[in-house]
Inverse folding.
């Protein structure tokens, strides 16, 4: 089963487009967990346990772990090890380097951390990403159009009658020889999502920005998914993780996760209904 | 003293444009060190001790350490801690994320690892790099034109009558409000180096590719440096680290490092001589 098929399979089985971002900031972990030896790991495990039936994927951003040194790296590994088998495990590391160096990153995230997918920055071109694409079961979500304001600086540049982000999408579509390429397209750009979906009809999309960043959930599902195959995972991090900072954080996180999952499912169903 | 001034100062004091890349692959560490508890760290310390008077900078690529898990992260930190005070310490991590996430990366590399500079991928735009540019003493080398074949895929795209890499250079020149921005321009593209130097006359350049990657050393110095201020650090990794795989690796590394430093100095002096 290719990575792309696995994403679709996971979404269908879980009835969920939801990806939960475990960008767990040590300072935002509830106070009553701060006396644990690894408060972030205890927090992550509680969030995972409370939401495992609701999420199709979890995305773990390495920045929040690296800033804790080697202890953070152990915490990152233990968090991946705590994820259930029936979800897509995404390392949001935004790596990319020359070929012999990218091979080390591929080994790190696909073999050691045992992530199913990695986010990769495409700027350095094809040979820089080749080591990530060797195993059809391991996926790469390439940064295409990101959810932050700075996406305007380079990604929207006009390139041969189109934009840089559309050029990236078209190039990644060509790289998808093994069915394991995907794209990161921010929920903060719904109409651009539609354009990228036309260029790459069957690539899985990772769509950040529907929670705290204020992206439009319904439009993101409508324009980001494709009924002929293109799946989308919509990520929410802070809105779920920090739904409550008290002892009820687990219940609060589950409540927000379930509301988000349902809203995503409603949007998906409304898309598949015949329009008058 | 801004980061840019510090780079110039270091080059003048050491009479060296040489940056040594500690991309130490555990499998390539000489056999007689493999019984050490951390062979890479012992190897790095030996290389550093043998070359400290010859190098203006050391560049440590995180990929080679991350692939060893949390032990590798400790090894990365200990390698940085082993560097002398009179060199520029560069973390070659090619990071970059949305603002609140980049802040964690900045904290990791500038505060914990205590690097003087970090390589950053510019694709996500200004707000994604802002947290790296707050301290004038800490520098950022932005990927502009990389040394690998894949640089052709996006970096050479035609953008408004110029190229993407030149657009990146011009944008980074604007970001240089605190004197702490630099650019990565590969030695494998000497004539393009000249174009980038015109756009960014006073930014320090980090120029990889003069060793094993086969870039042109003399042209890189000629086109990459600017007598009015623009400094360049030319990186060699594998050619120095693996000059010998035997017990004489220290002497061999020093010999290649000194040859490279001298060749760089000759190129710099020939540039400063009046031409007939």
């Amino acid at each position: 089963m290719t990575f792309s098929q696995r994403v679709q399979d996971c979404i269908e089985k879980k009835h969920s487009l939801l990806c939960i971002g475990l960008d767990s900031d040590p300072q935002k972990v509830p106070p009553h967990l701060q006396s644990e030896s690894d408060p972030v790991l205890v927090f992550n495990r509680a969030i995972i346990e409370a939401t495992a039936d609701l999420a199709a994927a979890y995305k773990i951003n390495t920045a929040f772990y690296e800033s804790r040194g080697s202890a953070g790296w152990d915490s990152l590994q233990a968090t991946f090890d705590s994820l259930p088998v029936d979800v897509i495990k995404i390392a949001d590391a935004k790596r990319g380097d020359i070929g012999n160096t990218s091979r080390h990153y591929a080994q790190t995230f696909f073999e050691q951390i045992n992530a199913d997918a990695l986010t990769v920055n495409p700027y350095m071109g094809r040979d820089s990403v080749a080591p990530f694409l060797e195993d059809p079961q391991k996926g790469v979500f390439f940064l295409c159009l990101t959810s932050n304001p700075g996406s305007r600086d380079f990604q929207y540049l006009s390139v041969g009658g189109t934009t840089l982000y559309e050029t990236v999408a078209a190039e990644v579509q060509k790289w998808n020889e093994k069915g394991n390429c995907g794209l990161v397209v921010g929920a903060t750009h719904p109409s651009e999502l539609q354009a990228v979906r036309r260029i790459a009809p069957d690539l899985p999309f990772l769509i950040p920005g529907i929670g705290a960043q204020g992206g439009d959930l319904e439009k993101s599902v409508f324009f980001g998914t494709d009924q002929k195959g293109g799946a989308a995972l919509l990520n929410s991090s802070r809105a779920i993780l920090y739904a409550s900072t008290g002892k009820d954080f687990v219940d609060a996180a589950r409540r927000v996760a379930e509301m988000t999952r349902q809203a995503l499912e409603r949007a998906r169903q409304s898309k598949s209904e015949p329009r008058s």
Remarks:
- The first strand of chain A starts at residue 18 and ends at 21.
